[in-house]
Amino acid sequence: MMNQNAVLRISLSTLALLFSLPLAATGQSQDDGTYKTPSKQLDPRIDPEKLTQQDPPALEQQLILPMPANFRIAKLASEVPISVEHWKEVNQSIELGLKYLRANQETTGAWAAHIKATTSNDPNKPSPISVAITALAVKSIIQAQSQSLEDETLQKAIAFIRSAQNDNGSFEGGVLTSYVTSLVVMALASTDEPDFHGEIADATRWLKKTQWDQSEGLSANQDWFGGAGYGKRGRPDLSNTQTMLDALYESGISPDEPAMKRALAFLSRAQNLKATNKADWAGNDGGFIYTPANGGESFANEYQGEGRFAEKIPAGQARSLRSYGSMTYAGFKSMIYAGLSPDDIRVRAAFDWIKNHWTFEENPGVGQQGLYYYYHTMSRALRVAQQHTITDANGIEHNWREELIEAITSRQREDGSWKNSADRWLEAEPVMASVFAILALEEAIKPTISDN
Question: Percentages helix, strand, coil for the chain, rounded to the nearest 5?
Answer without folding.
Answer: 40, 5, 55
